[in-house]
Structures are given as structure tokens and as C-alpha cells.
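Recap from last week: sequence in, structure out.
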Amino acid sequence: MLTAQTEEDVMNRQRIVAGYDGSAEAGAAVRWAVAEAGRTGAALHIVHAYQPSWTVAYYDGVSAQAAADAETLAEEKLDDLVAHLHERHAGVQIVATTVRGVPAPVLLDAAAGARLLVVGNRGSGGLTNLLMGSVSQQVATHARVPVAVVRGDSDTGDGPVVVGVDGSPSTGAALALAFEQAASRGAELVAVRAYSPPPPSVLPLRMVEASEREALQQSLTGWAEKYPAVKVRAVLALGRAAQVLVGASRTARLVVVGSRGHGGFTGLLLGSVGQQLMHHAECPVLVAHRPD
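Predicted C-alpha cells:
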């Protein structure tokens, strides 16, 4: 572990926070996070939130020992992980912290002010047949910073960065993250706008398509000038947004979406497109939360 002073110095830098619980999915998330830290020059803060087994902690006579054993096990897991990461990523500053508490609130607190929070799609808790763990769902829903849910093929690969564009208030945040990711990776950016037209008797398809294409181009206005080195491809797709983006994830290295689009209820913190991607995408998903 790093000294308290060194840890404080690292925590004051722009940092990436990654949740870890010993599961294979969390391990993939940490590997993705350390690669992101190395590419962007950020520090990496690995947080292991642990709780003693409730079946043991229920009994007062053994709860103290159970808590001590859980803390020791958590620290041993982190020590091994950090040693391994230092061997492979010597240039990345890494802080590892064990915290006794409920994982989702612990991670949300730790990520306050961070540039990015990274989690696996499913941790060591819960049922093995769940596609996505409750911790990942809670974190992606309630975070005030961008959240990367690492799932599917988490290798960098040579695919594009795909971003969903729908003109909602979240689109700007999603585009900002997507261009930043594409620039740092030297990747092509594919901006996708999906639409479901009304019946031809209401409005001709060509008119709807022209309107949607114009809206897509307007959303991209100014971004090419800000990121001239990023190759941009605008794609207009017929169909439901979630289905279109899940399909695009098969060849992408990353899919970026806003926290909430035009569909659904405005009070929802995370839209249905983001939720479906976090359950079914075949590559990591980056959810762009607006600052407010």
C-alpha cells in the first residue's frame, strides 16, 4: 500500500476510480481502468468495499472476528492485485483502499470529483444468472460522474468508438466523452442516430429521413473543429435505439450514451437505452452523466 501522504497527493490529481470485489468481472474492469489511466495520465484509485457474511455477522459473539477476517481478506486481495498491476503498468500511480460498507454508496462517495468511475457488469454478489449486478446498476444510475461498465470484449481492439446521438440534453455530454475517447485512442468515431418513422400515410419516409439526417448533422456541428484528428462517420439507422446500438457494439471498442434520452419519463435518472446496453452490449459501455 502507498503511504498516507503519497495517497493524498494522488487523490488530489485527476483520477479514475475502479470498483473491485475479487470477481472476474471486477478484474476485467480494473484492467480496463488501468489502461485508461495510462493512456490519459490519470491516477487510478481502486476501491474494494467489503462486508462480512451476514450469516456470520448475525451472531454478536463472532461478528467482530468476522469483520476482521473480511478486512484481512480484502486487503490481501488488493495487495496481490496492485503488485500485479505495478509490474505491468509501472508508469501509473495506483492507490488501493478497502472500505467496510455497502458497495454502491461506497463507490459513489469515492468517485466524487473523479473523471471516471469504472465497474464490472456483475460482481461476486447476487445470482450468477443475472446479466448485470445490482451494484453496477445503482452506480450507473446515481453517479454524478461518467461511468464505464466493462462488459463483453474489454480488449482495446481496433474498432470504432460508437456514440448514440438523439438530440436530448444528454447528447452534448455523450459527444464530449466520445470525442475525448476517440482522440485518446486514435480511433474512428461513429455517431449513430436511430429513428422509428410514423406510418407513410402520416408523413413520407423520405421527409422523415431528411429531417433526421439534418438533426444528426446539427448535433455534430463544431465537434470536428475541436477534434480535427478524429475521423467521424455519421450513421442514420432505422429502428429502436437500444437495438441499433447493441448491434453496433459487436464491432466497437466502446459505446457511449447519455444518461437519459428523449424516450421514457423525464424523472428517470438512467434511460432505457443505457440500461439495455449495460445488459446486452458486447463491449464496454460509457454512460455520460450531465454535470447537473
